[in-house]
Write a structure and sequence with these properties.
single chain, about 290 residues, alpha/beta, Rossmann fold, eight-stranded mixed beta sheet, 12 strands, about 40% helix, globular
Length: about 290
Amino acid sequence: MTDATIGFFDSGVGGLSVWRAVRRRLPGCSTLYVADNAHCPYGPRPAEQVRRYSAGITRFLLAQGADLVVVACNTASAAALQWLRAHVATPFVGMEPAVKPAAQVTRTGHVGVLATHGTVEGDLFRNTSARYANGVVVHTYVGDGLVECVEAGRADTPEAEQLLQRYVVPMLEAGVDCLVLGCTHYAFLTPALQRILPATVTVVDAAEAVARQVERRLLEVTSALPAAVRSGDPDDPAITVRHRFFTTGTPDVLTALLRSELDRTPEVQRLVWRNGRLYRIGGSTNGGWAET
């Protein structure tokens, strides 16, 4: 029995928040994860540049056997998702700012969105807001410096909390009672956010919705996704689940976050960019660890 393999990519470690949600929902699926730390953050970069990076990473993931690719980065989804779907014959699931669920649950009619420059300037965010936020005031802030805090392993620090206050306090003063996390990195700032936000404010993260969409798309593209693959049945000897991790930068923060998720130290394979393509460098040849 062959298990399904899901590929993920992000500019760094942020997409692990989505990987975690998908892994919980589909524990019997193998995964591939690429963190493009060499180009992190994507937020300030031109959309065309982000599209090139996204295309190169997608090529690598497909070569490694991905059956479906999750663009686990809001900026890359805004810049590249439509292009990838038009040019690559594989199913994609991307990140859409969770304005719709926030607009449905707000009581004050004021919704906050904390995102990157690339996300808030993209058509995906504008179209989503125009379609689902009728009658709701959307307060948008670009979280400059937040991605860098997460990438440096300083998500739960006074520095991160001070930055968050700069963006969140004006939203609270405007009456926001729902805060949309418009960047996958921001999920790792939740402990710091909880110290700032009153209990009356709902934090909306798209990771669980993306996990549900991944399951739906896998069922559409596989003739019969075995129940054991969906459940991750540990007693099924025919199912072998393997998780492989790659980075174009240094693996320290990625390894630390994965260690907390997996209760073990995974191996992270180093990659290098050459002429728009990704190649492995050094280390072992398998770039991951296996579950049986």
